[in-house]
Design goal:
Elements lengths: L1 H16 L2 H9 L14 H5 L6 H9 L16 H7 L3 H9 L8 H8 L3 H11 L2 E8 L3 H6 L5 E10 L10 E6 L9 E5 L3 E3 L9 E5 L7 E6 L5 H11 L74 E4 L4 E3 L1 H10 L12 E4 L4
Antiparallel strand pairs: 1-2, 1-7, 2-3, 3-4, 5-6, 6-7, 8-9, 8-10
Helix pairs in contact: 1-2, 5-6, 5-7, 6-8, 7-8
Organism: Brassica rapa subsp. trilocularis
Keywords: ANK repeat, Metal-binding, Repeat, Zinc, Zinc-finger
InterPro entries: Ank_repeat_dom-contain_49, Ankyrin_rpt, Ankyrin_rpt-contain_sf, Znf_RING, Znf_RING/FYVE/PHD
Length: 356
């Protein structure tokens, strides 16, 4: 027993010093990756407390460390909790991509409390069923009829589940931020069977009112902030009912595409100005531009952009060859995700095609 314990203590020493090879060697010798010290730290928890130990955290996960390990108390002190509490954006993304739970939203609450904006965006982007710029109406309703633009403000809206293990009925929250620079939301509204005042027809300038069932006096009136926002309003209403959207990525900065330009490592939350990007699922079908029943799967053969659903598809992804959308949308995808929205192959270049 003493010999095993000394192995585990040696493992912690290797973690602190960033000795990746030593960690791998001890793992081959049978060291327990889930052993906890007196403070309740596993090797992975310890690695998630410092940005310089990112490579160590990555190695431990590759070796099979439990990304959701936590001591008996406090219950939510998981690796994700500690990384979010310290604003370690890169480590947070690593944990989320490897199945870290966000139960009770404790990591998100920590990131908001300590105002780690990029960590808040990373967690919400990973778990949200809707995100995008919208217009929030305020002030007297009568004045809103005559001058709606003067009584509305642009806000960033996300809808997120309150648990990584969906209960029945599903529970979601509507969160409103004054801007993407803010880590702390201005409004948080529970969406338990929300009362939605939806219009019968989704016109671009139509608004949707959400009434809080717990507090009938608390309501929000929102409209799309982009032109031709019918689809965004539909996505928003569906998300309020718990229907997730195809993709949960934030908008990205439009960049000029050059053959030699590498993809951006991250998005700049202060530079985002355009409306939200919604990417179709791989292999999803899209109605033809004429509105007929014939669905297309060939990445834009209908002549309509599969992403914004408005512009013609005039951009081709190289080297996969899919005509997947308009140049504007594909440029944004190339600069952020660098993946074809049809086959998920890496995009080396986006080229404009001319239809005859």
């Amino acid at each position: 027993m003493g010999q095993m314990q000394s192995k585990e203590k040696l493992m912690f020493n290797h973690v602190r010093s960033g000795n990746v090879e030593g960690i791998r060697a001890l793992c081959l010798e049978g060291a327990n990756l889930e052993w906890m010290d007196k403070e309740g730290n596993t090797p992975l928890i310890l690695a998630c407390k410092k940005s310089k130990l990112y490579d160590v955290a990555q190695t431990l996960i590759e070796l099979g460390a439990n990304v959701n390990a936590h001591p008996s108390a406090p219950r939510d002190a998981t690796p994700l909790y500690h990384a979010a509490r310290r604003g370690l954006e890169k480590t947070v993304k690593l944990l989320l991509s490897n199945g870290a739970n966000y139960d009770c939203q404790t990591p998100l609450q920590q990131a908001r409390y300590y105002k780690y904006t990029k960590v808040v965006r990373a967690i919400e982007n990973h778990i949200c069923v809707f995100s995008g710029w919208m217009r929030e109406f305020y002030g007297p309703a009568l004045l809103g009829v005559f001058a709606p633009q003067l009584l509305s403000r642009r806000v960033w809206v996300v809808i997120i589940p309150t648990s990584s293990i969906y209960p029945k009925p599903y529970k979601f929250e509507l969160v409103v931020y004054a801007s993407l620079k803010d880590a702390q939301p201005r409004v948080v509204m529970a969406l338990r069977n929300p009362h939605l005042k939806e219009p019968e027809e989704m016109h671009p300038n139509t608004s949707v009112t959400i009434v809080d069932n717990d507090n009938k006096k608390k309501s929000l009136k929102l409209a799309s902030s982009i032109e031709e926002g019918r689809q965004q309003l539909k996505w928003f209403c569906d998300a309020c009912k718990g229907i997730p959207q195809p993709v949960r990525r934030p908008p990205v900065v439009v960049q000029t595409v050059l053959p030699s330009a590498p993809p951006l490592a991250d998005y700049d939350t202060e530079a985002i100005e355009e409306g939200p990007m919604h990417y179709p699922l791989s292999g999803s079908t899209t109605p033809s531009a004429s509105g007929g029943g014939g669905n297309k799967k060939d990445g834009g053969s209908s002549g309509q952009c599969l992403i914004c659903m408005d512009a013609p598809s005039d951009g081709i992804c190289v080297p996969c060859g899919h005509v997947a959308g308009c140049m504007s949308c594909l440029t944004q995808i190339k600069s952020h995700a660098s993946e074809c929205p049809i086959c998920r192959a890496n995009i080396h270049q986006v080229m404009k095609v001319y239809r005859v």
